[in-house]
Each structure stands twice: as structure tokens, then as C-alpha cells.
Amino acid sequence: MSSQQIPEDSLPAVQETAHGAVEGTDDPFADPGLPAHKPRIQDLDERAANRSERAVALMFTLSMLATVGFIASYVIFPVDKIVYIWPFGHVSALNFSLGLTLGAALFFIGAGAVHWARTLMSDVEVAAERHPIEATPEVKAQVMADFAAGAEESAIGRRKLIRNTMFGALALVPLSGVVLLRDLGPLPEKKLRNTLWAEGKQLINMNTMKPLRPEHITVGSLAFAMPEGLDPESHDFQTQMGKAALMIVRIEPDDIKDKRQRDWAHEGIVAFSKICTHVGCP
Predict the structure, then answer these.
(1) Residue 100 has what pLDDT?
(2) How far apart are the C-alpha atoms of 282 and 238, rounded to whole Å?
(3) Among the listed ranges 36-50, 77-91, 154-168, 182-196, which one has the minimum average pLDDT value?
(4) Percent of the chain whose predicted confidence (pLDDT) is above 70
(5) Rounded to an integer, what distance in angstroms lies between the CA atom of residue 161 and that of residue 53?
């Protein structure tokens, strides 16, 4: 006879298990309630709380320094300066420094806020009862009271070092966007219309860095080329390649149906701009 067929009144109220006695309950899915609160070391030791406060303030201060670094990078580095950074290779010094400093500024604000919440703010769990969604005067008063209680629990009034450095970090970060408004001008005018290509320029294979000849390209294959005289180590290499990159394709001459394209081709070899028409990626 299985246990499912035993009447409930025949089952014992207390069952013995390997972990001790377990008392039966009428509701096996009863809400166990919130677990008992375990105080953190910062709740018991004021010196530990002060260390956490200094750590949070340090992160907010690093965020402010990173924002200053962002503005300084924008002023110091020219747009066409290329540097070698392992393992990324040759990159724009301006873009790399702007991304690094802005990322650090935002990261340290988030890290400081998380460390503040985990070590200094109140971590007592509170169950919020459901209530009608109405903005009554009582609700507004309760919201303000909860806000005041949250401010008190966060210790933002007592921890002035955290408050001041947080306000400083949050106030400086928007300046990163303000300085970028400078890039709205001047207008490019005709700079994007001129490339390094000219009559008589040799095509250089970007993989081998050697002159590209027709016999090097087989039917159905493609190659990437750049104009001769362009040094990959030069400071304006990326700028020039952003306008002059080519994709060389060879197909059967009879497959070229358009007469004008056939006149452009040489023995089925056709050159196309490698510049993305979406956002201009080379």
C-alpha cells in the first residue's frame, strides 16, 4: 500500500529524519517570512564604516579625475595622432583616451554607489504591502517620509565626505558631453572629396604590402588595396584609408553586362570602394 493511499489522520504529526524531528504543517507552502537580519562588520565597528566611507569617496574622486582626464585628452591630443597600444595595435590616441577616461569616470561612479549601498546603507529587508495606485495626500506624505527615512538610512547626511565627492563626480561627468560639442564644427567642406588616388598610382596589396599585378588576382577572388606611398606607420594612415581603401574583384569579362563597367574593367578586374556606405567604415 503506497503512502498516497494512507489517510491523513493516520500520518504522524512529527516525523523523524536524518536531520532531526520535522513537525507537520497544514500549509506546506506557507510564507516563511523574512530571514533574520545579520549585521555587517560596518554595523558593529565604526572604524570599518569609516574605511568604507573613505573607499567610496576615493572612487568618486577617481571619477572626477577621470572626467578631468577626458577634457584634458580632448584638448591635448590632435585628431590625427596615431599611437601603438598593445594588444590593439595602431589606434587613434584621441579616441582611445576619450573612451578610457569616460569609461573610468562612469565606472567609478557606479562602483562607488554599489560599495556604498553594500557596506553603509541599511540592508534590513522590508516587506512592502500592496496598496491602491492613488496619489492621495496621505500617499504623498508617506512618500516624503520614506524619502527622508531613506536619506537617513543611507547616512548621506552624516557621511559628508561621500555626499560631497558624489555630488562632485556627478557634476563633472556631464562636462564630458559639453566639450564634445566642439566637434560640431568646422564643416568638412571638400576634405572628404579628395583622396590619395591619382593617375599612375600603383595598387599596393594590404596583406603583403607589395605592388598588386593582374596576374596576382584569380577569377572569383578579391583583394584589398591601398595607394602607393601610404605608410601604415604614419600619423594620418587611418584618415587616408578612411577615404582611399579599395576592394579589387576579378570576374569573367563576359559576365560584365554593363558596357560602362566593362570599359572601367581591365581583363575582368574591377575596383570598388571599400568604404561602408552606412557609417563610412574603411
Answers:
(1) 97
(2) 9
(3) 182-196
(4) 86
(5) 7
Residue 60: name the closest of 156, 151, 149, 178 by CA: 156
Dihedrals φ, ψ of 126, to 5°? -125, 130
Burial 100-129 (b: 16+ CB within 10 A, else e): ebbebbbebbebbbebbeebbbeeeeeeee
Q: Which element (helix H / strand E) includes 269?
A: strand 269-273
Look at residue 138 in the predicted model and tell me its pLDDT.
82
Residue 190 to residues 100, 185, 195, 208, 235, Cα–Cα distance (Å): 32, 14, 11, 32, 21
Question: Which residues lie closer than 8 Å to 178 by C-beta, 6 or more apart?
Answer: none
CB of 245 closer than 8 Å to CB of 273: yes
Residue 13, Cβ neighbours under 10 Å: how many? 7
CA proximity to 215, closest of 262, 264, 261, 267: 267
Confidence at residue 265, expressed as pLDDT on a 0 to 100 scale: 82
Residues 6+ apart with CB under 8 A from 272: 246, 247, 248, 249
Residue 92 has pLDDT above 50, yes or no: yes
Residue type, 225: A
Is 3 a residue whose pLDDT tops 50? no
